[in-house]
Amino acid sequence: MTNQNLRLHNHPLIQRDMTLLRDKTTPSPIFRATIKNLARYIVYEAAADLALADEPVETPLGPFTGCRIATQNIVLAPILRAGLCMIDGAFEVFPYAQVRHIGLYRDETTLKPVEYYVKIPAELAADTVVYILDPMLATGGSAIAAVDILKRRQVKEIHFLCLIASPEGMAKLSEAHPDITIHTTCVDERLDENGYILPGLGDAGDRSFNTGE
């Protein structure tokens, strides 16, 4: 993994909220709200790479040449189901973005991703910028599959946004797709034998939707 691939965002507010996510006593409503906050922070940071174009406007006292985001084709692509928790925070940064859902789940035996739902046109506009949203980058399988799906649709600029990552997942995603940027708040120690991040925060989907056993 090179520094060119990775953007590590560790603002004090991000560190504070990540601590709340990791705490096993944090209840589901607070867990979801915290993911929303963190999604807003990390999408805001990821947007720093966007190109600008001139935008002339009239102030109350005269003309001014300001700027706008060069592309009007911003796509938020949550990986179901945990990625859904990041949508509301992302919308606060890009309220007019499109949302394109990618349904993947991890086979608990093989740890490989299984595709079950993709709602994306066969081809997107040439200047489309896609932000894949998933709270965790663990084995890297789902992230690689999501990028594969988008590249088959000729998307040129893809960012993968997660809240927590493993070294193994980052290495695999970077090796498979060295041209995309990975945004995260922290890189943890390793994966366990079941493919979970250590020390991590548990299963983000179960904790978000209160479905853990």
Walk me through this protein's architecture.
The protein is α/β, with parallel strands linked by helices and 213 residues long. It has a single domain, classed as 3-Layer(aba) Sandwich (Rossmann fold), CATH 3.40.50. 30% of the residues lie in helices and 29% in strands. The protein contains six helices and 14 strands. Strands 1, 4, 5, 6, 7, 8, 10 and 12 form an eight-stranded mixed beta sheet that branches. Helix 1 (12-22) runs antiparallel to helix 2 (28-46) and helix 2 (28-46) runs parallel beside helix 3 (87-93). It is globular. The two termini are 35 Å apart. The model has no long low-confidence stretch (mean pLDDT 92).
Give the gist of this structure.
This protein is 30% helix and 29% strand.
Task: Summarize the helix and strand pattern as letters.
Answer: EHHEEEHEEEEEHEEHEEEH
Number of helices: 6
Q: Radius of gyration, rounded?
A: 18 Å
Level-1 CATH class name: Alpha Beta
Main structural class: alpha/beta
Number of domains: 1
End-to-end separation in angstroms reads: 35 Å
The fraction of residues assigned to DSSP E strands is 25-35%
The CATH architecture can be named as: 3-Layer(aba) Sandwich
State the CATH topology. Rossmann fold
Largest sheet features: 8 strands, mixed
Quaternary form: single chain
> Looking at the structure, what is the overall shape?
globular
Helix content: 25-40%
- Runs with pLDDT <50, length 5+? none
